[in-house]
Amino acid sequence: MTAVLDHLAIGTAALTDGWQLFGGLLGGTWAYGGDSPGFWFGQLKFAAGPKIELLTPTGGPGAAFLERFLAAHGAGPHHFNFIVTDIEATLAGLRALGIEPVGVNLTNPNWQEAFLHPRNAYGIVVQVAQQAGSPPANGRPEELPQPGPRTRLTEIEYGVGDLAGATRLFTDVLDGQLEAAGDDTAELTWAGGKRLRLVREEGLPLRGSLHHVRFARANGAFSAREREQAGLLAERLGLTVQLA
Is the Cβ–Cβ distance between 80 and 5 less than 8 Å? Predict the structure, then answer.
């Protein structure tokens, strides 16, 4: 069984800021997306690192989970997604840690999934999914601007109240490689330049604390104006973006 950090999903009521930030400014290119019951999703990929997924509600009963999230928190990080090769083995590994998955749906052979509640995943929803074959080819949204210079998503830094427990989850079950560890930090990596930095943070609320996502331009540097623009767009998306 293998697991790979595939994407960070961000919930938002409007997609424009996400398209401008992750597409136009940070050079993300269209991966795939489309309609699901109650919401629309779209993924952008970068020169390296996990993808960014944007989620927006479209109404009806299937939108309730996302509408609740936005009402409670505003735009912001919604979940981590891990693509696994054997979801049954992943579920067994989670249960061996005393974590009971929720929303388990194994009926669709092309997309089987399960979720971890934030209280069991150290502050954020975690989705694990087994996908058969390649994602469907969907047309690039007209609203997505032409991508700027290519960047790498080099790091996601996430604050957790229980560093040892979170490290155990992301290494023992979700296959992260522990590259470095200290009393208050753990550096985890997956293939394809995917990096998650866990930071011990006392007194965290249930939803945890995503400190920042960091991007580095493949060639050249970011201008002062680009840094300012990134900061404004990221703030509206409930994020902090660092430009290396």
Answer: yes
Lowest mean pLDDT among 33-42, 68-77, 198-207: 198-207
Mean per-residue pLDDT for 126-142?
A: 86
Residue 18, token pair as written in the block: 């996400």
Task: Write down all domains in the chain, each with its CATH number in brackets.
Answer: 3-131 (3.10.180.10), 151-243 (3.10.180.10)
Structure tokens at 179: 């590259």
Output Rg (C-alpha) for the chain, integer angstroms.
17
Full-model pTM: 0.96
Distance from C-alpha of 137 to C-alpha of 116, rounded to nearest angstrom:
28
Question: Which residue in the block uniquely carries the two structure tokens 């991966």?
Answer: 31
Answer for the pair 212, 41: CB distance below 8 angstroms, yes or no: no
Q: How far apart are the first and last CA of the chain?
A: 34
- Kindly compute the dihedral angle of the four CA atoms of residues 66, 33, 58, 62, in this order, to the nearest 10 degrees: -60
For residue 192, the tally of other CB atoms under 10 A from its CB is 12
Q: Is the pLDDT of residue 1 over 90?
A: no
pLDDT digit string, tens, across residues 52-94: 999 999 999 999 999 999 999 999 999 999 999 999 999 999 9
Rounded Cα distance between 242 and 244, Å, is: 6
Nearest-angstrom CA–CA distance, 39 and 63? 6
- Cβ atoms of 81 and 127 closer than 8 Å: yes
